[in-house]
Amino acid sequence: MKVLLVLALAATCILASPGPRVKRQGLASLTVDIALRDRLFMRRQLNCLLNEGNCDNIGRDLKRIAPELLRGQCPGCNQKQVDQARKVMTFVSQNYPREWRRLLGAYAG
């Protein structure tokens, strides 16, 4: 569940940076849904987080913020971002259970 939080928050934080809030939040929601359905994208991010593959910008951001997120901290997050993170965590824990356990061990330790 926490890895999903990481993925969702990374996507929403990246998209919700400077700019019109309403448009960006809607885009972030759509982007999270699209990302979750993209198995290649998910595999790349999980491999990055597990140090088993190269990292793109999103993966590097995820690795940087993962420890805080897995401790339940989300500085600067709004309720929408927290809700999206929960959605992502649920998805990853249900669809990538082995990777989920490994991520918890690596980042929540």
From TrEMBL:
<dbReference type="Pfam" id="PF03392">
    <property type="entry name" value="OS-D"/>
</dbReference>
<protein>
    <recommendedName>
        <fullName>Chemosensory protein</fullName>
    </recommendedName>
</protein>
<dbReference type="InterPro" id="IPR005055">
    <property type="entry name" value="A10/PebIII"/>
</dbReference>
<feature type="signal peptide">
    <location>
        <begin position="1"/>
        <end position="16"/>
    </location>
</feature>
<keyword id="KW-0732">Signal</keyword>
<dbReference type="InterPro" id="IPR036682">
    <property type="entry name" value="OS_D_A10/PebIII_sf"/>
</dbReference>
